[in-house]
Amino acid sequence: MAKVGFVAKAEKLAAMKSPVLLLTFNRPDTTQQVISALRLVQPSHIFVFNDGPRSSAPDDSRKVAETRALIDREIDWPARVEKLYSEENRGIVNGPPDAIDWFFSCISEGVILEDDCVPHVDFLYFCDELLDRYRDDDRVWVISGDNSLKLPITEPYSYGFISDPNPWGWASWSRAWRHHDRTMSDWASFRRSREFRRLVPDIVERSRRRHLFDSKPVSSWAYRWALTVLRNRGLVAVPRGNLVSNIGFNRPDAHHTFGSSPQANAETFDIFPIVHPPAVEKDPQTQFEWVERGLRVRRLRPSYRFRKSRRRVIKSFLYLFRGKRTP
Q1: Domain count within the chain
Q2: Residue 255 and residue 49: Cα distance in Å, rounded?
Q3: Which among 78, 114, 219, 268 counts the fewest CB atoms within 10 Å?
Q4: What is the per-residue pLDDT across 133-180, written as a single tens digit (0 to 9) for each?
Q5: Do residues 170 and 131 make contact, with C-beta atoms less than 8 angstroms apart?
Q6: Using CA atoms, how far apart are residues 257 and 252, in angstroms rounded to an integer?
Q7: Residue 97: enclosing H or E segment and its boundaries?
Q8: Please, which pLDDT band fits residue 314 given cuts at 50, 70 and 90?
């Protein structure tokens, strides 16, 4: 698997087959990079959502207008382009799911990209192949492009399955999205239920998920979708190498990617030829690493806390011992 830049370089590439939904707001610079990646494979059917300006942000009207003008200018290949432009700001909680509802009311399957998620071209072909392969398999709910955590995948397969979706470049089917519970209608009772304990038997992981689903959905739609997928035991295909680079970190206009991160601007990789796993089930090592590092459960485990405390005690002791030896 050779390292490459954000997109593969080729003289001429085959057009991708799947429709694409592009979620945009007020970032023309990142939006341009995503469209430039799409231009390499020239999808013939593109849906574009653009959220309206916030009344509290004076620069939004100008930036939103610039983004919309850029979309008109940069999608310059033969394509059917459908637009959902909001005059009011729907925000990160309502805007994306409104757009995805619209997308899947028009088509049965497709790829969703946010305006800061730049795909390698292999991601788009990867989606084409897996959307077709698992179209009628109700066990598979999401095809993810993100593996910036470098989750291990069982050799020699090109991807594995886990339980949680990531919104940094993904694909799905209307058959899955129609289950989306955007209000988390019975979470209050489900979080205490026997069903939830069976679904997440590890007590530390269960506590972590309760915290996430209690607090995060008020600021992002993605956690509501994650709960839907988890509760329905949906599987999420994760590629061996990262296929989408999130370039939205450490920007003043970021929603949930403030500051720096080892996952920011992650390199992307080739994935073809694809070797499919023989069984449609969670990859144990991928799922374990996702829970421990992706959900950050590892740092909550008593053994981890004990090791951290022991290191602090040893470090303090050494500091005091060396201080006493100083003449």
Answers
A1: 1
A2: 17
A3: 78
A4: 999 999 999 999 999 999 999 999 999 999 999 999 999 999 999 999
A5: no
A6: 10
A7: helix 91-106
A8: low
User: What burial class does residue 43 get, using C-beta atoms within 10 Å of its C-beta: 0-12 exposed, 13-18 middle, 19+ buried?
Assistant: buried
State pTM to two decimals: 0.87
Q: Is the alpha carbon torsion for 279, 227, 268, 47 positive or negative?
A: positive
In a domain, 318, yes or no: no
E strand or H helix at 238: strand 235-239
Domain annotation covers residue 233: yes
Chain-centroid distance of CA 81 in Å reads 24
pLDDT tens, 207-261? 999 999 999 888 889 999 999 999 999 999 999 999 999 998 755 655 555 556 7
Cα 326–chain centre separation: 53
- Helix (H) / strand (E) containing 20: strand 20-24
- Report yes or no on 301 lying in a domain: no
Residue 273: cis peptide before it, omega within 30 degrees of 0: yes
> How do strand 159-162 and strand 117-119 relate by DSSP bridges?
unpaired
CA 27/CA 71 separation, integer angstroms: 11
Structural domain harbouring 10: 3-296
Whether residue 316 is contained in a domain is answered as no
Report pLDDT digits (tens) over 30-87: 999 999 999 999 999 999 999 999 999 999 999 999 999 999 999 999 999 999 999 9
Report CA-CA distances (Å) from 200 to 41, 98, 109, 144, 209: 40, 30, 29, 22, 9
The one-letter code for the residue type at 88 is E
SS3 143: strand
Which CATH number does the domain housing residue 75 bear?
3.90.550.10
- Tokens (6 digits) for 46: 């593109």
